[in-house]
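Example record used in the benchmark description.
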Amino acid sequence: MRIGLLTEGGYPYVSGDARLWCDRLVRGLAQHEFDIYALSHSERQEDEGWVPLPPQVSRVRTAPLWSADDDRWRAAPKSLLGRATTGDGWACGRRARRRFAECYGELAAVLCAGSGGGTDASQKPSATEADRFASALYGLADLARDEGGLVTALRSETAVRALERACRAPGTPSTAREARVPDLLAVAAHLERALRPLSLDWYEDEGLGSVDLCHATSGGPAALPGLLAHHFAGVPLLVTEYGVRLRTHYLTATEAPPAVRALLTAFHGRLAAETYGRAAVVTPGNAHARRWQERCGADRAKLRTVYPGMDASPFAEVGESTECADPDTLVWVGRVEPAKDLVSLLHAFAEIRKEEPKARLRIVGAASGPEGAAYLGHCKALAAQLFPDEADGPHAVGDNPVSFEERGGPDLPTLADVYAAGAVTVLSSVVEGFPTGLVEAMLCGRATVSTDVGAVVEVIGGTGLVVPPRNPRALAEACVALLRDPGRRARLGAAARARALELFTVEQNVAAFHGIYLDIVSRTPVRRVVLDDDGAPLPFAAPAESHVPGRWTGPGARVVPCGGPGWTAGPPVRATTPVPATEGA
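Model output (structure tokens):
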């Protein structure tokens, strides 16, 4: 089958989220054909280029989320005959401008009504609100299709005035009614960026309209092209979320003014509910994400948990070895940022040193952005304060029991070497989605001590110790217990590796999605019907006999649209007889 893979800020770019699992999925399903539709996050990301693509990727189409002025955001322009350019710079007619004002005004009214929940990102919209949001969204999509794009209109004064009228309307919740002009401008700018996919020309017959299935690799803007392909051409949609996009917005919008946060939370909540409602299947990456999706309106019958797949081969040698580089060493691996709570880990290690003076802590990871760099500097200063350099004697050089390192050096050339350097792997986070580093440690056969956040308990499943977050004493006691009991460490490590190989490998991930693809397509109404010479329909849209020479592949065979909007009608597509493969090919 032909899959339209929808990504945002990730695959096929060298940098970005979800790059690895998308690449493994595409390479693992060589029997299918993939069209990649990618939204980029920055000019730098585009300049870095793509990863090498396998032969089953037949087409890649990209569009930027970082520049509204980029010509790639505009669909093929329609004739401007009879149109006037408004003061906002949008070349349109009166009817188009009136349609935009009505649809955008309805969208703004729905968001204002939904802002009554404040910053509760998981508030499920009512059926009426959901219908109004869908009507406004698809009304804007139809207008964008007719007018060749809405980028200028979404940035226009008309859009800001529509937001202002909705916020000042009688009965509007106080949070939205208190929005000031800067707040309205901020909300309008955010909506313009989020709705940019409306202006793309991806939804024609030669684009997403021709695929058998759209697979969105996240919610939000990545899923919006899938919603539009479903709206225009009836293409089924599969949505995968390893980190719930709505939850991410909720956690990162804390510094916005209350009115801005409430309105944008309402938008992302309505968009998430519409995405979950239209999707044929939603695949959360863990039970934590699944609970969020259910609270945001996802039908439980549509949810199927598919764990991320990881390549186990780099960790095979370490995982099957019974040797340990240093039985007194703890290892922490990850991106250095405040959410990882290394401060609590350092205070816990101070307690560990009182019980186990030979213990050492290796912190392996790079800083995540400027905030991470500042946090790393703070942690280094705290480590120097808590653990002055120690020496074995008066003539020996002092050494700090805590080291800050990065992978790739002579001591730790590979990720497997990092986990092999210690007896216990520690995770001290206060916020975590799916703990990839924990799975890597499990594949290496390492005993783990983790905080109870995100999907940690679900991943560990009894093969490691779990303590409350922000509790240095509990973290220290668990680490000491494992450092003092080599037999227990070995048993937990072996069980952890067996669990990871059963649940979290690339093979199980690819097999799960292959089955879901087939299931969705098998339950999707036929969008095109193949007719034989007598005009009688053949039973399948792409019957197996179409690949074998015969009367059904002769000049009389025709493919015609079945249902769908009127613009799908056109001249019949004639099937051609395939060329037989030469012997030895």
